[in-house]
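Hi support team,

I'm filing this because I wasn't sure whether my run with FE2/S2 (inorganic) cluster finished correctly. The job status page said complete, but I'd like someone to confirm that the output block is well-formed before I use it downstream. Pasting the exact inputs I used:
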Amino acid sequence: MKLTLKIWRQADSSDPGGMHTYELDEVSEDMSFLEMLDVLNEQLIEQGEDPVAFDSDCREGICGMCGLMINGDAHGPEVTTTCQLHMRSFSDGETITIEPWRADAFPVLKDLCVDRSAFDRMIASGGYISVNTGSAPEAHSVPVPRDDALRAFNVATCIGCGACVAACPNGSASLFMGAKITHLGELPQGQPERDSRVVNMVAQHDHEGFGGCTNIGQCTAACPKEIPLDVISQLNKDLRTAMRHGH
Ligand code: SF4
Ligand code: FES
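And here is everything the job wrote out:
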């Protein structure tokens, strides 16, 4: 495949940045999107140019490091992570536009790399269980209804990639936050801190500069783990309950 790439280049957070155009002549449709960028970077290094900075780690759809805006879609045209996207999803001769996540709470560090530490601070504010659960319990010693266990497991698949924020016109992290609230709130171990968790996480979310949810739904459409929109309803319900309890 031959491709034209229009890529956002930005030296650091103080640089205004801009789009640069590159041509690639030999891309296999079996390459992953990140392998295609590796080929570009080898070409740039050979030419003595600065390679394009982008994040990745596991390259297996697990770690959440690799988000890019591809032709205006978070993680590109498939429901998957950028590292699991393959070039067969594009056509020979196509022009592909590649940008970093765009959100006030995710400032650009360099080129396609953004600072997502706002998510870490949200988790530190309440996205954990600190009760002592002891050693590995006997199976069924704390019965968890099957539907609750399944829901907790399904929403625990959130990898913190930030696509939901990048896709949301408000730059809201409500889907990410709702996934954590629902995951922990479905389990018995999550109950003691349930009220303080939601209050503190929402306060940190707003403090970080994420926007509010207005039920647009782009977050769930962009989510590579298909986290459902109703986790945001759960988030709002838990917040109302916590306020009724005097938080
Ligand atoms: S909810 Fe989905 S899109 Fe948002 S951080 Fe989690 S996995 Fe990524
Ligand atoms: S590099 Fe880990 S999810 Fe893509």
